[in-house]
Amino acid sequence: MSQLDTEKLGLVFQSRPDILNGIKEAADSPARVDLFNNIAAFVLEQLTADAADQPVSKRRRVDVDQTNGTPNGNVKIEGTSSADVVAEAAAEELQLEIKDISVSIPQRKKYNLCLTKHFIFARTNADPKPVAGMVWRWEDIEHVFFLPVPEKTQQQFNYVFLPRGTYLPTSNNQSTTGAKPQQPSTSAAAEPLLFTIPQAAPKPGSLAGKVAAQAQVAADSYSSLVNWAVPQFLRAAATRLGLSSPVEIVASDPKQFASAVRQSHRPSEKAVHVKAFRGSKDGYLFFLRTGILWGFKKPLVFLPLDRIVSVSYTSVLQRTFNMVVEVDVGDGATEELEFSMLDQEDYGGINQDYVHKYNLQDQSMAEQRKAKRELAENAKKGGAGAAAGEDGENAADDGENAADDGDTNMGELQKAEMEEEQRLQDEEDEDEEDYDPGSDGDSEGEGTSSEEEDGDGDGGGDDDDDDDDEGEDDL
């Protein structure tokens, strides 16, 4: 029986190992082997011919785009190829490897997750090199979430890593770290990372790397292990960037938001998600302290609180309603996202416990949130400049410019706060005019009930947060 030409197939499908694996599984007859070999030879011949016909400068740009671009054209990284990043990550000393982790995004397969000083990447047991398209720099990770997997009898959890420029619903992928689109510096991966862990502890032999022994102490469960290891790398990345506040792992919390819909598979546990459609895709909304996440299908969407302009409702029916979120995508532009078929039972929790809590229904408050965000962005830019600016006068000039920007934005923030204080004062005056002593009992009763419901919730990620600080100096 003839053999597959793995060399040519590997060159053609180097960025799609899932297709390559599918070909290997389907090549169960000589006819199919010959067919796959002929396809690989033809495609490789066409690619070579196209590259030879183009000018050198044009060829170089196309090569970079092919290795670093995304199917949606979201992130383009000039000057760094996927192969370069893979080689750089592979050359670093392995700090920790967690074997047999179920990854869903970018590719659905079990991989070994590897953590080094500058990278997190996936690889297989058969190949020590990182999988192309599954290498992320720690400096490029902007948000990390720890969320329960909905509708599972056995409790499982998802970790979501969002690099810059991959989660806002816009073609130019604005980042929350600046007014202009920002791109991962040299990461080969332009998609988020999503992997699932069970509630159990890792099996013996599941850990490897320089700090495997220390990690084993923290490995009472997969979540305690990840919550021990990942924050250390995020803190180190923040230090390299000159940031005072590292990226945190944000967990869902029933005290923050809990669904009113009872879970049939785990009735004693409050759900922290709401079923919702985005277009024809079904998914789940998570209302978190930093924003609203929709998952877990591609493309993942995260709407930071400081990017939300307003929240409104449409198609309010007896059983369902739709929620429309207007988002600031930068450069004065906004986009609206509609999430449909939300259960009517969750309307009160979403509207009162979340939307009104953060004043997301009030467009006038969006300016205050924007001013706070820009002030924080300037502080981050100033910190990054201080870390990199050791060139004397240039560093001083950058600091003065950052200070000027900070003064400007502080003025905007103070103005917004004064306007909000005036609005609240006006509302208090109106309440005093409309005061009705006969309504006190009902109001107090409702407030007490709401507080009691909040107190019933378990602290979603409190225990895990305590694990973050253990062994910080090990890496």
Note poorly predicted spans: 50-79, 171-186, 386-411, 434-474
Task: Give Rg in angstroms.
Answer: 25 Å
CATH fold category name of the domain at 70-252 and 470-475: PH-domain like
Please summarize the sheet with the most strands: 9 strands, mixed
The helix-strand sequence is HHHHHEEEEEEEEHHEEEEEEEEHHHHH
Distance between the termini: 51 Å
Class by alpha and beta content: alpha+beta
* Count of strand segments: 16
Mean pLDDT: 76
Put simply, the count of helices is 12
Which term fits the overall shape?
globular
In CATH's first tier, which class of the domain at 70-252 and 470-475 applies?
Mainly Beta
The CATH architecture designation of the domain at 70-252 and 470-475 is Roll
Strand content: 15-25%
Helix content: 25-40%
- Which homologous superfamily in CATH is the superfamily of the domain at 70-252 and 470-475? Pleckstrin-homology domain (PH domain)/Phosphotyrosine-binding domain (PTB)
Protein name: Histone chaperone RTT106/FACT complex subunit SPT16-like middle domain-containing protein
GO molecular function, one term: nucleosome binding
Family: Belongs to the RTT106 family.
Biased composition (Basic and acidic residues): 367-380, 414-425
